[in-house]
Backbone:
């Protein structure tokens, strides 16, 4: 996890749209779909 820089007043967020929640039901034989699924599940 990234540590905040004390010299900057910024925050980092993650954006998930509703489409990502259906990714686990898509065809997992495609590399991109598999990577997106794993990324969503790791959150």
Residues:
């Amino acid at each position: 996890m990234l540590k905040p820089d004390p010299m900057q007043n910024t925050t980092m967020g993650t954006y998930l749209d509703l489409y990502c929640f259906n990714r686990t039901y898509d065809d997992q034989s495609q590399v991109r779909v598999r990577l997106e699924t794993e990324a969503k599940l790791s959150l």
User: Anything to note?
Assistant: Helices lie at 31-42.
